[in-house]
């Protein structure tokens, strides 16, 4: 029998804020243990949480980026469980009224565009980090209270690869929107995966297994690639799957049971009485919406459709937003966006890298590239001359036309002068001229070379060829 | 004697240079030495720190600081053992906090310091503010100064006992279901529970976050007004504090009750009230009428559900609030083989019986499958109770009721019957559920033995001025506030 996997993801990502969710401590990775802490994020007796306004904004902004609804009422709840890294022994999170609901993410997969529905993205506080030593354990609370967004997808993913691409697309969106740096090595993104399998075509969902503790996207992919066959095998061998939580062991490359449904936590959620419900008004939401950015996929499609550039070139402009912005300014009013894209990607980008500078610090305006492409297309300069113009432009600024004038780089298209150069070449090289007359077409290239040489490269090569043929063949 | 003065009389003397803050502080310490072995109001006392603060107050007075700017300058005030003051212990009368000392000042403590108060001593309470008699304390019972065999009430029983025994000029406590008003009634003090959100809860160890409110325990109404003015106000560190301006609460004191409409909730005045309490209450109502007040009967139909609702909401919140006392980071720890056994042993030994009972109850009402039947329903009933108040306040300014159906009971009398203990809070609890303000002040005494009786006034949200004005008019027309316990 053929089986299919049904996969949903819960993705936790740390928000890019200066301070923590409910206190003024720095939201900063890598400090000495328990140095970015205060009575509030240590959960000392008597303290109260005060919500971080920026975190609330970033949450709503994420909602808009993920095509979610941002309801006019949301609230915080307490999730109760005892664990040494949870300093209050409850976590402040959002249970039944999250800040954002029902959205979707579109992403490229398998040569097309796939859509994964987003159930919700809710705001909570991160917990501390346990460390285990020979004789004792320690907890670092620097991470405790860092704003954490949990993005829950519907079970719309069918494979490990699809999950992997979804996560990458999600990460791109979050980085794009300035929501999170999504630095995996700093633990800024962590995933839980819900997986079940069912005979292909069945409507009914199979038994759900939740896998916890994955902090790389490749780990998620490997875990799914381990778990799906395990579940299928269990069924095919006549076994029964139980609803359970499993832990991913990244080193061994296996999942192992943590707890079954009977031992599932009862988190006893209830409304956080220390915080007022969130009632974002229109002005506040408008302010958030003003921080919206174009989604990566939308940008890519727009670049391809509007400018006719290749998907690869568009990817460059999606990956490097300032460069894309520069391109968009350069291309305004141009009839050759492809050539502009080439110049921006191949020449400008290389120069920027070499000079270790950025688009913002350029000495010339984007329009200069458009002008450069125009004079190339008009035949005013040769491609070699164009390189020279660009180098000058990059070094000292100015406009391509004035550089061409100043350096005398304009190609000569004047027929009288061209005819003289060509006639001189014909007169000086009777042999190759005979060859041309006898049908050896590529002998013309030798003559062309002679003309270019005597004109010191200024002759328009195309016109030179035409003139030589005319003079020789009459 | 210096220790017998009201707070307002003391500040007048301090301002006039007739006494020093050090003398006032020393008078309290002497009084404590004389009576506290019998009253047991104080569970810890930092004498050097207290006298140091008093000297600083004297220096400020000498430098020209006035009580206009610092209304409590040089006034010794004690704190219920749940306020966080930097470097000082905060035990909540529990074993579980061990030798914990707060590394920070809570907002009320900071405000009191800013107002010039000399904050000294930690007074006894029911453990984590859970109780009505101050018998649930790991530091021993406190005793009612009017009859040492009787309880001072609770949970701010140490505050009431200390004020009634004249061991401090005022005390700051909290009121979650009557914890200031009930002990005030039993000890003959004035206990004020401000509107929820009027005073910051930052730095107050939480019992039930949606019900807790900080307030003063004082000798008379004027002192209460001064103290409220010092501690009230919105606090950026408490998201539930409310941006309502703090008025001069003493400015409204004086005058009669002409035109004031007092509401008599019929549901409160049932059979269960002690005859002497009832008689004193009826006389108090008459007195208000004499002073010009109109009396109207009002209905509060959901009153009977108050206690049940309260014990669901409060215990649910407490079960989470008290989870952090787990032996991992601070306080007492009993080692275990794994975190779970460490938690069980630490909490098993660290918490007292009543606290455990309420944690279990609160955990139960939030449990999967029971949440809707208990917690959710209680929240709905809470809304109805709040509506009772709103409707009553459409016709009257303030409600008038007895604070407690009975006078102070004997220690041990109700400890075997927690439910009976819970039911004694019936008149005070609804005010917390509705989030509005209330005050208890003396309205007479029983005859044999002589025990104080409390009158309760319940006001509109942020109607503290009106409450204080009425209380003051009644107080000034009656002799009760001048009586002192004979210790």
Element string of chain A (H = helix, E = strand): EHEEEEEEEHEEHEEEHHHHHHHHHHHH
Instruction: Report on the biggest sheet of chain B.
Output: 11 strands, mixed
**How many runs of DSSP E, i.e. beta strands of chain B?**
11
Low-confidence stretches of chain B: none
Average of per-residue pLDDT values of chain B: 96
Discrete helix count of chain A: 15
Structure description:
The complex is a heterodimer of chains A (474) and B (487). In chain A, the strands form three sheets. Chain A has an eight-stranded mixed sheet. The longest helix of chain A is centred in the middle third of the chain and has 20 residues, at 217-236. Chain A is α+β, with helices and mostly antiparallel strands and 474 residues long. In chain A, strand 6 and strand 7 (137-140) form a beta hairpin. Chain A is elongated, with a radius of gyration of 32 Å. The model of chain A has no long low-confidence stretch (mean pLDDT 90). Chain A is built from 15 helices and 13 strands. Chain A folds into three domains: 3-289, no CATH class; 296-407, no CATH class; 415-473, Arc Repressor Mutant, subunit A (Orthogonal Bundle). With 487 residues, chain B is of the alpha/beta class. Chain B has a single domain, classed as Alpha-Beta Complex (Amidase signature (AS) enzymes), CATH 3.90.1300. Helices cover 39% and strands 13% of the residues of chain B. Chain B contains 15 helices and eleven strands. Chain B has helices spanning 7-15, 21-39, 47-63, 107-114, 157-164, 181-187, 221-231, 275-290, 306-321, 339-350, 353-366, 372-395, 418-423, 426-434, 464-477, and strands spanning 42-44, 76-80, 118-123, 170-175, 190-193, 213-218, 261-265, 294-298, 398-402, 437-445, 452-459. An eleven-stranded mixed sheet of chain B has the order 1-3-2-4-6-5-10-11-9-7-8, sandwiched between helices. Chain B is globular and about 65 Å long. The mean pLDDT of chain B is 96. Chains A and B meet through loops of A and helix 9 and helix 10 of B.
